[in-house]
Amino acid sequence: MKTRVLLVITTILWLAVSNSAEAQKGIRIGYIDMEYILENVPEYNEASADLETKVQKWKVEIEAELKVVEQMRKDLNNERVLLTKELIEEREEDIFFKEKEILEYQQKRFGPNGDLFIQKKRLVQPVQDQVFIIVQEVAKSGKYDFVFDKSSDMVMLYSADRYDISDKVLLRINRASKRKQVNSRKEKKALEREEKRNSTQEKEVTDREKNVSKKQAEREQLLEERKAARDSIRAAKKKEFEARRAKLLETQKRKKDSIKGLKEQLEKQKESPSNDEGETEGNEDN
C-alpha cells in the first residue's frame, strides 16, 4: 500500500515538472472524504441502522450461548466428585462441541468473510459506485487533474478546504435520490429550482433548514415540558380533590351513622314505657 501511494505521488510530481507549459499552468487536484459522504446519505444511514440492529441481535445470541457454556462448566465442577470418569469425559466433550459451535457461529457472523463483512460491502458498494461516477463528472466539469479519497489508506499530511469537493459529490447524490422520489409537477419544478443552487448555496440552505428544524424541536420540547408540568399540577389537584372528597364522604357517613344510631335509641326508649304500663295494668287487675 505504501509503495502504491509513493508511486502515485511520484507520478504527480513527475507530471508537474516534466511539462513546462503544464507546470506554469498548474495541476488541479481535489479530494473527497468518503466517510463524510456516507454519513450524509440518508439511504446509507437507514440501511446502516438496520445492520446495526442485526449485529446487536447476533451479539446477544452469542452472549446467551456463552452463558450456557459457563453454566455447563459450573455444573460439571459441582458434580465432578459424584461422576464417573466416563461421565466426566462425556460432559467435557459436550462443552467442547458447544464452544466449537459458538466459535463457528462467531466466524459466520463476524469473521473475515462473515455476514457482517458481506452486508457492509453490499451496503457501501452502491454508494461507492455512485460516488465514483459523480466524481468523474465533477472532475471533468471542474477540470480537476487528480481526485483522491481523504479517508482511504493514502495519508494526506495536509489538505486545504478549498480543494475538498465532497459537498459537490454529496449534492449530486442527494439530487439524484430526490429525482427518484419526484411524483408531481410541482415537486419537479421545486427540484429544478433547487438544482440551480451550487454546493455552497445548498449548504447555506441546508444549514438554515437545520436551524429551523432545531428551533422547531426546541419549541416542541418546551411545549412538551409545559404540558408535562400542567399535567403534573392537574394530577396533584385531582389527587387533593379526591382526598377531600373521600374525607367529606367519610364525615357524612359518620354523621348518618350517628343519626341512625340516635333514632334507633329513641325508638327503643319509646317502646320501653309502653311495656311498663302494660305490666302495671296487669298487676292492678290481680
Give an overview of the whole structure:
The protein has 286 residues and is an all-alpha fold. It has a domain at 2-196. Helix content is 82%, strand content 3%. It is built from 9 helices and 2 strands; from the N terminus they run ααβααααβααα. A two-stranded parallel sheet has the order 1-2. The chain is flat.
Describe the structure concisely for a colleague.
With 286 residues, this protein is an all-alpha fold. The protein contains nine helices and two strands. A two-stranded parallel sheet has the order 1-2.
Per-chain topology:
Layout: H1 2-18, H2 20-25, E1 29-32, H3 34-39, H4 42-79, H5 85-110, H6 115-142, E2 146-149, H7 166-181, H8 185-195, H9 199-285
Features:
single chain; 286 residues; mainly alpha; two-stranded parallel sheet; 82% helix; 3% strand
Radius of gyration (Å): 42 Å
List the quaternary state of the chains.
single chain
Mean pLDDT: 77
How many helices?
A: 9
The total of beta strands comes to: 2
Major sheet details: 2 strands, parallel
DSSP helix fraction:
over 70%
The geometry reads as flat
Low-confidence stretches: 14-24
**SSE sequence, one letter per element:** HHEHHHHEHHH
Strand content: under 5%
Structural class: mainly alpha
Rounded to the nearest angstrom, the distance between the terminal CA atoms is 138 Å
Strand numbers in spatial order across the main sheet: 1-2
